[in-house]
Amino acid sequence: MGIAGAMRNFDPNMGMEEFFYSYKEGKKQSGQGVEEEENLRDVFSALVQGQREELEERIRNGTSEPSHQIGANSFTEREWTKLIRSVDAVQEAMREAAERERELQKKAEQAEEAEKAKVCIIVYDSDGIRCIETESGICRWFIKFTDDTQYSKVQEIMQGVEAGAEPAPVLNESFWQTWLN
User: Fold this and answer.
1) What are phi and psi of 50, to 5 degrees?
2) Distance CA 138, CA 132 (A)
3) What is the Cα–Cα distance from 92 to 25, expressed in whole angstroms?
4) Are 141 and 130 contacting, i.e. CB atoms less than 8 angstroms apart?
5) How many CB atoms are closer than 10 A to CB 67?
6) Deepest in the core among 76, 98, 129, 158, taking most CB within 10 A?
7) Measured between alpha carbons, how far is 50 from 43 in angstroms, rounded to an integer?
8) Where would I find the beta strands (DSSP E) of 12-102?
9) In sequence order, what DSSP letters do the residues of 123-177 get, joined into one string?
10) What is the DSSP string of 22-69?
11) Is 154 exposed, middle or buried (0-12, 13-18, 19+ CB in 10 A)?
12) CA 47/CA 38 separation, integer angstroms
C-alpha cells in the first residue's frame, strides 16, 4: 500500500513552495530485498528540519524579522513602522490644512473688520447724501434725493447724531434707503 501527497508552504520572501512526499510499505517480492522504508513521520520531520534550517539561515543573514499579529493582519517591525509613518503623515497634512484654513479665515475676518473700521463721513446737500472714506476720498455710496422733503429728513437725523445719537446706522446705505422711502 502506498501513500502520496503534497504539502504547500507560502513564504513571502521565497514564494510558494510545494513539497511532495510518498510512503511505501516494503514488501518482499519474489527475490527482491525489502525496499527502504520511509516513514511518513520521517518525511514531515525532514520537511520541518528544512524549514528550520532555512529560517536559521535567514536569521543569521539578518533577512528575517519577527512578525506580530495585529487584528487580522500580521506585521513585521519594518512594515508596522512604515504603516504608522504613513498614517502620521496623513494626520499631519490634515492638521496643516486645518491650520491654513483657520489662518485664511482669520485674515478674511481681519480684512472685513478693517473695511468696516475705515473712517467715513456722511456728506449731504440738496442733490443727495453720500458716504466718503476719509483716507482715500472714495465714495462708498450715493443716494440721489427725489424731492425736497428727503433733504429735510436727512438734516433732522444728522442733527440727532450730532447731539449724541449712535452714528453707526447713518453709515449704512440700507438705513438711508429705508428711511428716505
Assistant:
1) -65, -45
2) 6
3) 67
4) yes
5) 14
6) 129
7) 11
8) 15-24, 67-70, 73-76
9) EE-SSEEEEEETTT--EEEEEE-SSHHHHHHHHHHHHHHHTT--SGGGG-HHHHH
10) EEE----BTTBPPPPP--HHHHHHHHHHHHHHHHHHHHHHT----EEE
11) buried
12) 13
Backbone angles phi, psi at 147, to 5 degrees: -150, 170
Looking at the predicted structure, is the pLDDT value of residue 85 above 50?
A: yes
Written as nine digits, the cell of 181 is 422711502
Q: What is the pLDDT of residues 4-21, one digit of tens each?
A: 555 555 555 655 555 555
Give residue for cell 536569521.
59
Cα-based distances in Å from 88 to 70, 71, 73, 75, 84: 18, 20, 19, 17, 6
pTM confidence score: 0.35
End-to-end Cα distance, the chain = 113
Q: Which three cell numbers stand for residue 67?
A: 512578525
Residues sharing a CB contact under 8 Å with residue 161, sequence separation 6 or more, in sequence order: 167, 170
Within 13 A of 149's CA, how many CA atoms are on the CB side?
3
Report whether 62 contacts 22 (CB < 8 A): no
